[in-house]
Write a structure and sequence with these properties.
mainly alpha
Length: 325
Amino acid sequence: MKMIDIDSTRDEVLAAVTENAFELFNAHPEIQADREILFTALAQNGYILHSLPEDLKNDEEIVLAAVKQQGLALQYASEDLRKNERVVLAALAQNGMALKFVLEPLRSKIEIVLAAVSQNGYALQYVPEFQDNKYVVTTAVAQQGDALPFASEDLQKDEYLVELAQFGAFPVLNLLLPLKEKLRNEKNPDLIPAMTTMITSIEKAMVTCGKECAEFEFYPEKLESAREKFISSFNSAIDGANSVLEQQTGWRKIVDDCANRIIDFFKSATKDLFSKREASPQEAELPKTEASKSRFSFFANPSPVKEEVERLQQTFTPPAEPPKA
């Protein structure tokens, strides 16, 4: 590739910055100001924002391009854009640790903090005011088990959080984030207790089951225990919330979607466990429903949830051992 200098053509610079964004600064000033070339360079390396003129650091589209490629480039944006929700959320989606560079009032908004810790649990260290918020800490620890030391002293001793941290990162719990966000914005006091109980029960069931499935290689019998606990807690959570939520149309789609995704995850997880065992005729006959995506409705009457859970139970049941010769 030809080295870029002040005499390089626009096309030469455009080609160069696709491979090395910093070649931009060797070009003629007029070419450096070309927005197509700027965006091409930013798509290659967002850190070049550091060396751009101050007016461009206050250009929302320029900064947005930078942080989409490298979230930590947010530190080089203007103060105004470090308080811009669109820019900040884009940065956090790429790297949750960019929370360090978010300015108030966004830094105090729980949805901003959740966006950060769900991408990188270590971002919890940058928001002391949320380190005693179990909702936030659980999200952080689910993403990164080692984030627990950044929680408050009380939450560091919380039995559930300790178990979650010891199990390690369990990003599948992020499947519950849409439900948690919906709950956070819920204004109806009659719904909040039921939803809180349902989400907490499902979350604990997922962690317990996941932990025991992780030990399946060494303790195959634990799969049975995992199955029993998960089925019981999952079914109880749904049954307990159904009477309160069945008339709440605003909740239906989000609850259905989360429930289906959770069911599908555990189907896939147990299928993977079975596939790791030595092949046997019995293992080849996993339930046919395993191949299909769950699409039951939480609110159907009669509810198909129990039938779907029974199918999941079949998936959790280990195949019979082949007869000894």
